Here is the input.
Amino acid sequence: MNFIVKCVIFVGLYAVIQAVTLHANLREIIQHREEKPENAEMLKKLKAEIALKRKYSEPYGGEPGKAYFKYFNEMILAPALGEYLIKLQQQKIGNEEQVKLFENLINELGKIRQDMANVTGGEDMALLNNFGLRVRETYIRYESIKDFPAWNTYLHNKLEKLAGKKDGEKIGCYELIDKLVKINGGENFRVEKISDTVAYMGPQEGNTSLGYLQINCHRTSDATQLQLFLAPASNALFKEVAKKFFAVLNAGKVKPEILLEKMASFFLSYSHVAIFMRGQASIGEALLRGLAYAQGYSLSYSKEWTGPSYPSADMHALSTFNESQFIKDFMQNVKLSILSKT
Here is the structure.
């Protein structure tokens, strides 16, 4: 075995050992926060309420389940992830190691998301087990937008506005497709008509890092049924997401608007690459909060980017096919506030 091969093996083993150690630290930080008296008491209370709701078959633990999910994400996971990322900032990490460490972090967050799903429960165990489960590289994640009322309404209105609908005017689905194809989107998006009833709306040619909308028309209705397909999580795309993640983490002392711009670029790429079967949106938002914490900020959203009455940040990302437009929207709807010293 020559010297170069030995060096490559050593670097690979070091990266693995480093990743295992750091991720063990993440679990330890989470456990420490869970054991704080105020957190332990609240988590115990919410779990007891969830157990009662599950007895009566309320999906995902009903309102207590939502409260647990919110509390754990904001009071446990975000600060714990922030503390972990501060440790990561202190490491000297090469480009290849960055990809490996990011993948290990993603896998760990997937397990944590699965643990959360097991606490809240659900009606369908097969679907429940998909939370935090990594997808195969050739898998194309599929979302039926009609299952999310706020997102469905938002996209209907967005498409009709793009098509030039006037107040009080009614645009049929076939006409909507024709109008969108006619105007196209210049630098922002392109629309390709597949048939009278189907069109694809997505990024410009050559941009394979973003997903696309499939617009389907019902033959018996003027309504549109929107379906969303996402780009598969190829190695090349995943590396790009990891690169953008570390660009935020290692941004240093920069103005909040510059940090937000880097966070927006990362989040758009992350949202459009299929990584998890379910739970990708909440894991992505946990990463955003953790990154903000590591830079000394807390993160909050405008009302228009807060579900369930409005589309979430992830849904807005999936509805945008132009990075500069998404960065602009992100900076208008995401706020960074300096963390309290207490």
Observations:
- Residues 5-17 have pLDDT under 50 and may be disordered.
